[in-house]
Design a protein that fits this description.
Blueprint: H1 2-30, E1 70-74, E2 79-83, E3 89-94, E4 105-108, E5 111-117, E6 123-133, E7 136-143, E8 159-162, H2 164-173, E9 179-183
Parallel strand pairs: 1-9, 7-8
Antiparallel strand pairs: 1-2, 2-3, 4-9, 5-6, 6-7
Length: about 180
């Protein structure tokens, strides 16, 4: 009987491994070559629709940004929304954009740093990174001196600048793995 049970377990293990291999193959075939990579541009990817806006309430969360807890970043409106699990906006604020924009899509927070020097040489705090575009790391941060000057358009930077108060809120909200939805 033990030999029969071992054979069944071995057969099930082989079937499970074959299924996993098949699914992995399907995922690699179905995934576009540039999956997970954003594209540097000052405009969104071709054909990416702009999320619908509430004309009466321009600070309102754009429609079609998903559900559940998430950060929503509009590259066209230079605005961020911190959205709770109940889909209610916890905070919204204006930002100073970087010179390199992420493509519209859904990302996740990949790393955070309490204090570093930004790619523009300015000391920043509460850095929340979520993607990179052609080697330029993209993330939210607040300048330690409170400045929010527009970056030099001739430099490729990925720091999306917030006020220190907004940076504190982002730091508390956007931990590793937090969803970040980028819209036009």
């Amino acid at each position: 009987m033990a030999s029969s049970s071992a054979g069944v377990v071995a057969g099930l293990t082989a079937a499970a491994l074959a299924t996993i291999g098949y699914l992995a193959h399907q995922a690699s075939v179905a995934a576009p070559r540039d999956a997970g990579r954003a594209h540097a541009s000052s405009s969104p990817a071709p054909g990416a629709p702009k999320a619908p806006r509430d004309r009466l309430h321009p600070d309102a969360l754009p429609a079609g940004t998903g559900s559940g807890e998430r950060v929503v970043y509009s590259v066209d409106d230079d605005r961020v929304w911190l959205v709770g699990a109940d889909d209610r906006v916890r905070r919204t604020f204006r930002i100073t954009p970087s010179t390199v924009d992420p493509a519209p899509g859904t990302y996740a927070v990949t790393s955070r740093s309490n204090r570093v020097t930004g790619s523009d040489g300015i000391p920043v705090e509460h850095v929340v990174r979520f993607t990179s575009v052609d080697g330029v790391v993209i993330g939210f941060s607040a300048a330690v001196d409170g400045s929010m000057a527009k970056p030099d358009p001739d430099e490729r930077t990925g720091g999306i600048r917030e006020t220190r108060a907004d940076g504190d809120a982002m730091w508390e909200f956007a931990t590793i793995g937090q969803q970040v939805v980028v819209v036009r």
